[in-house]
Amino acid sequence: MKRILLGYLAREIYGATLMVLVAFLGLFAFFDFVNELDNIGKDGYQIHHALLYVAMIMPGRVYELLPVAVLIGSLYALTTLARHSEITVMRAAGLSTTAMLWMLGVIGLAPVVLTFVFGEYIAPPAESAAQQWRLTATNSTVSQQLRSGLWVKDGHRVVNVQTLRPDRSMEQVRIYTFDEDGALRAIADAAHGAYVREGEGGGHWRLTGVVQTEFTDERAALVSPPELIWLSALTPEVLSVLMVQPERMSVANLWAYIRHLRNNQQSAERYEIALWKKLIAPFASLVMLALALPFAFTHERSGGVSVKVFLGVLLGVAFYLLNGLFSSLGVINAWAPLLAAVTPSLLFLAAAAAMLYIVERR
Questions:
Q1: How many Cβ atoms sit within 10 Å of the Cβ of residue 59?
Q2: Cα(281)–Cα(278) distance, rounded to whole angstroms?
Q3: pTM (2 decimals)?
């Protein structure tokens, strides 16, 4: 009997979740397109460019919205079953709360796997491709927060890149080289930099149009080699983090960039929090299903579904906002990355446990 009930509940919850997810994706696609309207007509950017860009960032929206869709969809499905007294019949037939939680846990495995696949294998490359498409369509470069360009520390070097192209080549590169005591030893200016791969995982930057100033204790010497080979831990994949938000990067890219920041004694809190959120996010769907369960044990026969769905929307929006809030608070207050990432899910899990306890006590 449990297998039959499991299949029935799964069908109802998956159907409602898919309906909610499609509705949310349509809404966010509309907002994203409206946000692109200001850029249409500038630098050759046309409506079809904007439409394709919006379509390419949709996998990222699926990754962000799936837990919320699971909450609202499961809440709608379970509340509808409760309204028709089907949950009451199930419990009267011997289905305990523990068994119901177990079945919801099994049902939640599909959203868990789906969230992981989208977050790790689909959304990151789609987001990167979307940004490259947008830059190519507008014939522009990667925008930087500083007018002086991108600044990156690389061991005993400090690198300034004025222009990072969509193909991940660099233009107008300046490399400051320091010795062990922190004294400036060389400044190299290059017109162009391209990454040359060697074997598996290795490679170097080939800089052309180079003018290098070398400093000694007595004098400064100016040299102009035809090209300069720059061996660096900075790869195009590391630099690509500029084109993708940390929350939409893959775990592998996040870990690689965190190691780079640590090796150069730089702050990595934002990326560490994003890494933990990526690892925890797939299990948020299980928390959402547990939160929806207490609503299944109520017995309103009329007017209850719409109210609870509205409540589910509010809870979903609250979860979405809390995730962003705790990420920002974690960076500002230097909280432990794991604490900042897991707190919203723990709060909602505690709320689910409290509500379920209250309902069971009635």
A1: 21
A2: 5
A3: 0.75
